[in-house]
Amino acid sequence: MNGDDGEPGFGVYLHWPFCAAKCPYCDFNSHVRHQAVDQQRFARAFACEIAHMRALSGPREVTSIFIGGGTPSLMQPETLGEILEAVANAWHVPGGIEVTLEANPSSVEAERFRGYRAAGVNRVSMGVQSLDDRQLKFLGRLHNVEQALGAIRLARDIFPRMSFDLIYARPGQTEEEWKTELNQAIDLAADHLSLYQLTIEEGTPFYALHKAGKLSVPDDDQAARLYEMTQDVTAARGLPAYEVSNHARPGAESRHNLTYWRYGDYAGIGPGAHGRLATDGRKIATATERHPETWLENVEAHGHGLVELSELTSEEQADELLLMGLRVKEGVDLARWSSYSGKPVDTEREAFLMQLGLIERVGNHRLRATPEGMLLLNRIVTELS
């Protein structure tokens, strides 16, 4: 997969927490600031926390870097350049590895694309979310379709690889409407699409509207039909699903996301970032302070913004491996799962889930969820663990 040998790899995730506006469906760690952000001060703090993570991880070879948010495309290219330089100073970063930046398609941000490319970004992932102006307003997006199309064209010209996100299963959306929009998206796509069903997350404005009965989303049956149609259309058009919500031409899968799903190690840096690191024969879970300015002060005072650093038990690792691995089409390596769990897979439970059509074997050594099982991953993990 894009020079990928099937190994989990070692990823570096960098979280830029600032947004121009908070979308009503979003529960990510994103914050709106009406005063200018001191980007130089934040860049120094990122470099500091990167050095701390390097001390935890030891020497590693980086297989991918992902700059997420928030809206990282609000960063000056110089800020990003400094942060990427700090990563290269901490770990071995081979030339040509996947370096992804999340971006929003407003025209001002799109103009920075050449600067990001010069700083080392070779893949951009854009939050388009819809190809309908009314729906973009409903989703609280700041761009319109025309700006999105312009940003997609620009990204295709500047970056070797490009992906964009769409949200479907929106209120009142019919199968026919989604099919038309999906085909339009595939026409525009370079080699990768992320297609997410709208979920109502606690603590968001959409949650309050939903609870008050002012916002209805498709029921489970309708959502399942939309999901199945999505799989059929993307497969027929050459962008099959390789994970629950991610579709790519073979070889163009997101290297960084595969590191998560294969349960590899990754350093999480920046406000609210999570990580998984193997160190001294242990696997540790890390999480940093979510509030950006508090994180900044903590890093300046202590050299890092960590609020959680805990050792995962073998059982917890087995569960995480299963939950992540079943999301991808390639499935889970059962020998690796057994090495964590200390037991073979329960043949009776496996047979029961197979009978329900939720899982299947890939050869003798791997297990994966069927398309139907992809909709019930938590149940499968509960049954098998």
Q: What does the model show?
A:
There is one protein chain. With 385 residues, the protein is α/β, with parallel strands linked by helices. The chain is 41% helix and 22% strand. The protein has helices at 39-57, 77-90, 107-110, 113-119, 133-138, 145-158, 175-188, 205-211, 220-236, 255-261, 292-302, 314-325, 334-341, 347-355, 377-384, and strands at residues 10-16, 18-19, 31-32, 64-69, 98-103, 123-129, 161-168, 192-197, 241-243, 246-248, 265-269, 274-279, 282-288, 306-311, 332-333, 359-362, 366-369. The radius of gyration is 21 Å and the shape is globular. The model has no long low-confidence stretch (mean pLDDT 92).
Task: Write a short abstract of this structure.
With 385 residues, the chain is α/β, with parallel strands linked by helices. The chain has 15 helices and 17 strands.
Please give a handful of descriptors for the protein shown.
385 residues, alpha/beta, 3-stranded antiparallel beta sheet
Alpha-carbon distance between the two ends:
29 Å
Helix content range:
40-55%
Strand order of the largest sheet: 9-10-8-7-6-5-4-1-11
Instruction: Supply Rg.
Output: 21 Å
Give the DSSP E fraction (strand runs of 2 or more residues).
15-25%
Q: What number is the mean pLDDT?
A: 92
Count every beta strand, where a strand is a DSSP E run of 2 or more residues. 17
